[in-house]
Amino acid sequence: MMIQHHHHRQHQQTSTTLPPHPVPLSTPAHRSPATPSNTQSQPPLSLAPLSSSSHRLPPQPPPALDHAITPIAHHSAGPAPTLARVRLSDISPYDGAPGGPYVRAVEALSGSLMRHNAAVIELGSEETPLMRCGLEAARLYFRSRSQNGVVKGGRGVYMYRAGRPVEDWDSSPPCMTEIFRCMGKAARSALCALARHLRLRSDVFNQLLDDTPLPAGEVSSSVLVATYSHSSLQNGKGAIGGGKPAANGEVEKGLLTLISSDSPVLQVCDPNGRWYLADCGSAPGDLLLITGKTLSHTTAGLHPAASYRAAPDFSLGTNSGGRTSLAFRLMPQGNAILDCSPIAAAGHVIPQSYVPISVSQFMDDLSAEEDVVCNQPNNTYVARNDMNKEPSLRSVLSDPLS
């Protein structure tokens, strides 16, 4: 799945304005929207007021199930698209009237997700050195444990949750607390930008999230995952650790996932079912953004979940020290309710199948459907038989001491 891409990093201005377009409609399907491999490419939504005719477009063919995990066909990878690159400073919420940079960044971010199922967030001069330090610290941590025989098979995963007591600081990579805060801020800012693009209040999804800062004694729902791979990844799995299998790829369960790595390997499936290398040319200050199934359901499919995988032909190349990645998963609270009412109130058409559901039940349903896929005879990837099996997002979400 690995494809060649030019190493010249072309800096895109976030001033690229996407043309207004009527809101794409979702037709009644299952509880959640279509998978990226089977959905039609949709243009970005417009920030302009909803027109009276935008909800009377001809019905589109029923999409495939997203809530149920379905096999994703292999497609020959073509040239990597140019993902939108938006500055974190441009999408961060602020008081006052929206300025041009904010409006353009919101359009560019949402448009890139609509066309490619991914986008890039550029950190500022203060956050970039922190991410570089975090990646290097995680690399040294895993290499040290590998030499001591703790990490076996050339692969290691560490999952950090804020608020969880750490009895032995030597047993965790350095800088996890600072990285968690940095990537959490970026993830929340991106979520606010996506809400604004849907003509919602920018804080409409805050009710799903942990309070900031966390109340005393509580453990975060969101997770920071540090992953180290010294050898080739098998079958394109385990690209960022903790994901759940979806036949030939993995799908995130939460709202958003931000990924920083020291070498390119991650492929994303676009809405047309084409796999492409999404993190090529990325620097430590670049965060690859992909969306998850929770956001897909709570937006009634307007932001479908992305499928990703490690490139099948992934090799370390010149990076003989292995590959290190940091992935921040913005997760909802287990007792929150996923409800599309704000989307309907904004004028979007909501299929009746998108009924309110608790996050815990939503995760249980996803887990049950994924178990069915894992147990299929033609599925060569069986998580429970994987020697490097990692905790599922559901277990991380439900177990405060996972």
TrEMBL record:
Region described as Disordered: 1-68
Top-level division of the source organism's lineage: Eukaryota
Basic residues bias spans: 1-11
Compositional bias per record (Low complexity), positions renumbered to this chain: 40-57
Stretches that traverse the bilayer: none
Stored PANTHER family: RING_U-BOX SUPERFAMILY PROTEIN, U-BOX DOMAIN-CONTAINING PROTEIN 62-RELATED
Name this polypeptide is given: Uncharacterized protein
Organism in which the protein naturally occurs: Salix viminalis
